Amino acid sequence: MLSNYNDILNIDELCEILLIGKNAAYKLLESEEIKGFRFGRKWKISKVALEDYILKKSGFRGRL
Fold first, then answer.
1. Which contiguous run of DSSP H or E holds residue 12?
2. Which of 45, 61, 62, 63 can pair with 36 through a Cys bridge, CB separation 3.0 to 4.6 Å?
């Protein structure tokens, strides 16, 4: 599913994967539902953090 993406994602990629807008993505990051970090003014999200979020929301207990 995420094999086409680098290990570190940006906001645009996060929005593309989750099919959400930037405002929703920023809310997820600021609330720490998805773990990310700021590099200057840009948000960076690890693919592992996104997978963890997806698994938590889906109730699935394994790895993607």
1. helix 11-18
2. 45
Cβ atoms of 30 and 43 closer than 8 Å: no
Element (H, E) at 24: helix 22-30
pLDDT in tens, 4-57: 999 999 999 999 999 999 999 999 999 999 999 999 999 999 999 999 999 999
CA 19 to chain centre: 11
Using only the alpha carbons of the chain, give its radius of gyration: 11
Question: Could you give the CA distance from residue 52 to residue 2 in angstroms, rounded to a whole number?
Answer: 12
Residue 50 neighbours by CB distance under 10 Å: 22
